[in-house]
């Protein structure tokens, strides 16, 4: 840049005047803001950011590579059958909520999204889901507990139960033999009762001094899985009308709390596996830290290097009961709701459900999916047992874990359980149970 | 002064400021006003939020976890500031003597500060995991009991503190090294001639010289401690029993895990207020320090 000399005698830059610089700056600022105008203003009527064409369904989902491939197959099949294109938007599991919620708040929700059963009530309550017009026709094909997970008390359904996941107890086969546990149970009817389960844990702990016997998967926002134990003991956390916590807590809840506290007090589970623990049970099992672990079916593929294991049904008390895992597919109310509902129906045909579950190591929610149609590439024998275990998921439990305030209930439950597990062992269980019920009650009614 | 004159006189200044003001308005003021509004509601993040006035702030006052998180945050700050500054200064004093490899060592110490906090936390988790961590494996390898890094409140807090000191000290090392390069050599030599030992020279010459740097670093560490999230979230999840819960992690847990976004935002605004007050205090101390320095010269 050169310069000349002004009348004052001071050198003056040439080529770039202040006015020119300001103008350029202003233009640049306007251009920059224009560049980001679409995402900023998408909630105010500008639909420019919508990535899919008007005749395209936008489906937001998360999943493993195998699940994404299975969704791609579903989308391709739907297009071939109906001519409607489907755009799949895959997001990390941790960002599922913010992605969908942001779209909803901005007025540009996905047409279809994958949603955990625990969250269906939240979205239903917010009025963003389009109820299924043909729910009555679809309902008979599904197991009632899974249909209940996507329905409101009036019977209207707001999603389709795409698949389920549940938990079983994986047992180190050699350790079980060495501990003299005898023949391991294979089906929920023959499951160990609680006393037998605790006895098995004590034997395994005695066999491996210094190491815990088992680990339960109630970490990582999984505190709701503790309610299996309550349901097994014929208890409840929430009232039958789901408008608060049962107070005082019933005998089943107190029994479940007493038993699970005992696991910590006796050192049968690692103390780091409380509800705020960051470790996963399949990691502990694979590392040999524990001889048994409560592991969900979707983690079976991660057990590389683990000792030879057997999948054993969850312990039972008054009855067998298992946790509700898995995901639904929901359609939002919008201009493409009809096509979105058609896509949901397509995803849950018996053939497509069987293909998806086989590819994703998931469990079917329909009752008419033949066992022979489920071709699991990993641990097929164990997966057959998981299918049987999923049949013990019970409607009363499902209703409690799918209330609109389920996230807050789980958070409060996790806090209360951690106090019970790691706090003063002398605190009476009844007091801890009442504290849990009190905080959950406030969370539900908030 | 006529309007035209005023525009001529101040117009350029406002025009120059305009882009920044627009950015601040869009990315700071607007979200901040939105946050204040959200904190006055019951909001699940979906559907219509319900206005509740100051109820969220009232609940905070009676929430034992909030007070636990506040005490933890303040306690962590009180511990972390002297530890980070002390280790940073100590390492810087050792490094300034080096003539070869100093740049490399500076980079090594700064690395944990500049890499993602999640990476640092995962490394911390690898070292301090109660079941399969490096430390406990080593302890068990020599026949000792492992430390309950995740299930004991004290051990969990200690593991977080160690990782944070490691992660934050790098900045202090680099900043102190820069300040030491400008150390008053004449005073140091005179003190040495007068028989002052290394500790006396450090205490009476170097530390007064480093005071503005120390104030700056202290404020930076305080602000960063109040914003600490990733290390705690990954290493302990705030547990056990909220023993390592900080205000920011509690805000996240309420806003996203429990979907109480109004309540979570209220916690966030409390953090903002505290950090704002701290920053204002810093400006006052900084101004006083500079005034004193001018008088001393």
From TrEMBL, chain B:
<protein>
    <submittedName>
        <fullName>Sugar ABC transporter permease</fullName>
    </submittedName>
</protein>
<feature type="transmembrane region" description="Helical">
    <location>
        <begin position="263"/>
        <end position="283"/>
    </location>
</feature>
<keyword id="KW-0812">Transmembrane</keyword>
<feature type="transmembrane region" description="Helical">
    <location>
        <begin position="155"/>
        <end position="179"/>
    </location>
</feature>
<dbReference type="InterPro" id="IPR035906">
    <property type="entry name" value="MetI-like_sf"/>
</dbReference>
<dbReference type="Pfam" id="PF00528">
    <property type="entry name" value="BPD_transp_1"/>
</dbReference>
<feature type="transmembrane region" description="Helical">
    <location>
        <begin position="107"/>
        <end position="128"/>
    </location>
</feature>
<keyword id="KW-1133">Transmembrane helix</keyword>
<feature type="domain" description="ABC transmembrane type-1">
    <location>
        <begin position="70"/>
        <end position="282"/>
    </location>
</feature>
<dbReference type="InterPro" id="IPR000515">
    <property type="entry name" value="MetI-like"/>
</dbReference>
<keyword id="KW-0813">Transport</keyword>
<keyword id="KW-0472">Membrane</keyword>
<feature type="transmembrane region" description="Helical">
    <location>
        <begin position="74"/>
        <end position="95"/>
    </location>
</feature>
<feature type="transmembrane region" description="Helical">
    <location>
        <begin position="12"/>
        <end position="33"/>
    </location>
</feature>
<dbReference type="InterPro" id="IPR051393">
    <property type="entry name" value="ABC_transporter_permease"/>
</dbReference>
<keyword id="KW-1003">Cell membrane</keyword>
<comment type="similarity">
    <text>Belongs to the binding-protein-dependent transport system permease family.</text>
</comment>
């Amino acid at each position: 840049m050169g310069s000349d000399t002004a009348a004052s005698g001071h050198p003056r830059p040439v080529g770039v005047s202040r006015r020119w610089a300001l103008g350029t700056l202003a233009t640049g600022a306007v251009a920059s803001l224009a560049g980001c105008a679409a995402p900023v203003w998408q909630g105010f009527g500008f639909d420019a950011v919508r990535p899919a064409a008007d005749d395209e369904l936008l489906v937001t989902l998360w999943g493993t590579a195998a699940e994404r491939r299975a969704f791609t197959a579903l989308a391709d099949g739907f297009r071939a059958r109906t001519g409607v294109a489907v755009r799949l938007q895959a997001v990390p599991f941790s960002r599922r909520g913010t992605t969908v919620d942001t779209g909803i708040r901005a007025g540009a929700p996905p047409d279809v999204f994958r949603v955990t059963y625990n969250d269906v009530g939240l979205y239903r309550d917010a009025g963003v889901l389009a109820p299924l017009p043909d729910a009555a026709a679809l309902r008979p094909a599904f197991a009632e507990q899974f249909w209940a997970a996507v329905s409101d008390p009036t019977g209207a359904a707001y999603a389709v139960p795409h698949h389920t996941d549940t938990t079983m107890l994986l047992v180190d086969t050699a350790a079980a033999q060495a501990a003299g546990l005898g023949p391991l149970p294979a089906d929920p009817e023959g499951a160990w009762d609680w006393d037998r389960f605790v006895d098995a844990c004590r034997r395994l702990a005695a066999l491996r001094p210094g190491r815990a016997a088992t680990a339960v998967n109630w970490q990582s926002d999984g505190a709701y899985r503790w309610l299996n134990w309550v349901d097994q003991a014929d208890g409840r956390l929430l009232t039958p009308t789901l408008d608060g916590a049962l107070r005082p807590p019933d005998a089943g809840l107190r029994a479940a709390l007493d038993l699970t506290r005992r696991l910590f007090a006796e050192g049968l589970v690692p103390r780091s596996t409380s509800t705020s623990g960051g470790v996963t049970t399949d990691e502990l099992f694979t590392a040999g830290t524990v001889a048994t672990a409560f592991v969900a079916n979707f983690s079976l593929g991660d057990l590389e290097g683990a000792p030879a294991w057997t999948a054993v049904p969850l312990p039972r008390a008054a009855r067998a009961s298992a946790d509700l895992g898995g995901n639904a597919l929901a359609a939002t109310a919008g201009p493409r709701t009809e096509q979105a509902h058609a896509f949901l129906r397509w995803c849950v045909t018996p053939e497509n459900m069987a293909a998806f579950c086989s590819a994703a190591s998931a469990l079917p929610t329909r009752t008419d999916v033949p066992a022979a149609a489920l071709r699991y590439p990993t641990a097929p024998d164990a997966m057959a047992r998981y299918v049987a275990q999923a049949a013990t998921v019970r409607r009363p439990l499902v209703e409690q874990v799918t209330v609109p305030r389920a996230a807050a209930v789980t958070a409060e439950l996790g806090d209360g359980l951690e106090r019970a597990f790691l706090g003063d062992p002398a605190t009476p269980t009844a007091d801890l149970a009442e504290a849990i019920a009190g905080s959950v009650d406030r969370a539900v009614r908030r | 002064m006529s309007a035209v004159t005023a525009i001529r006189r101040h117009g350029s200044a406002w025009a120059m400021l305009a882009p920044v003001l627009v950015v601040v308005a869009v990315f700071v003021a607007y979200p901040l006003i939105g946050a204040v509004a959200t904190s006055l509601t019951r909001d699940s993040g979906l559907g219509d939020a319900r206005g509740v006035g100051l109820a969220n702030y009232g609940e905070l006052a009676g929430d034992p976890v909030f007070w636990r998180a506040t005490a933890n945050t303040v306690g962590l700050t009180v511990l972390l500031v002297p530890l980070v500054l002390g280790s940073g200064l100590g390492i810087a004093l050792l490094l300034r003597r080096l003539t070869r490899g100093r740049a490399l060592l500076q980079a090594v110490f700064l690395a944990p500060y500049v890499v993602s906090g999640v990476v640092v936390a995962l490394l911390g988790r690898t070292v301090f995991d109660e079941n399969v961590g490096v430390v406990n494996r080593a302890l068990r390898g020599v026949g000792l009991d492992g430390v309950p890094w995740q299930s004991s409140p004290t051990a969990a807090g200690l593991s977080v503190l160690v990782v944070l000191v490691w992660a934050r000290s790098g900045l202090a090392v680099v900043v102190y090294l820069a300040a030491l390069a400008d150390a008053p050599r004449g005073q140091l030599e005179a003190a040495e001639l007068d028989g002052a030992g290394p500790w006396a020279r450090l205490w009476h010459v170097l530390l007064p010289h480093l005071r503005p740097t120390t104030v700056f670093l202290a404020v930076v560490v305080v602000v960063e401690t109040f914003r600490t999230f990733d290390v705690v979230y990954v290493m302990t999840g705030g547990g056990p029993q909220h023993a390592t819960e900080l205000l920011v992690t509690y805000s996240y847990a309420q806003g996203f895990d429990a979907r109480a976004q109004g309540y979570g935002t209220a916690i966030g605004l409390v953090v903002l207020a505290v950090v704002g007050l701290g920053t204002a205090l810093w400006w006052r101390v900084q101004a006083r320090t500079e005034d004193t320095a001018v008088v001393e010269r």
